[in-house]
Amino acid sequence: MTQGGNDYGPLTGTEYSTWVDSLRDVEELVSDPEMKGEVKRIREAAREVRVDYKRHSREPQWSLVRELIANPIGQLREKVQGELLRKSSERSAIVPIDHDPVPSRYQQQQDRYYENLGGAKSR
Q1: What is the pTM for the complete model shown?
Q2: What does the alpha-carbon distance between residue 92 and residue 77 come to, in Å, rounded to a whole number?
Q3: Among residues 68, 69, 77, 101, which is most buried (max CB within 10 A)?
């Protein structure tokens, strides 16, 4: 974002459509209603800034852009990253380490091993 009439960034530049489409994609992908609402609020604020810029040739109020768009996007990014980490750790926690089945002739030994291992913890 620059000031002084420069055509830079998604709000005043030519990349607005692509940028707002990516926000719409995020809105559709998140399942949390609170996050979904936050993306919608950000998208609507951006639309209002863009309309004002295009219709009235007014330079955006950059402090307002930071407050209503940039800062909330940063907070939302952190929430989404946290959610992705949580979901990926849940998936990895249920994936077995050893995918190969134990040969039947060793199954009894393995059962005893795990019973002994479990018994050692309770002592």
Answers
A1: 0.64
A2: 22
A3: 69
Q: Which of 48, 41, 8, 43 is nearest to 25 (CA)?
A: 43
Mean pLDDT of residues grouped by 10 in the chain (123 residues)? Answer: 56 92 91 93 95 90 94 92 80 60 82 78 48
Pull the structure tokens for residue 102: 């134990």
Domain range list for the chain: 9-97
Angle between helices 33-56 and 16-29 (to 10 degrees): 160
Q: How far apart are CA 19 and CA 49, in angstroms?
A: 14
Instruction: Specify the length of the chain in residues.
Output: 123
Q: What gap in Å lies between CA 109 and CA 91, rounded to an integer? A: 30
Phi, psi of 69 (to 5 degrees): -125, -60
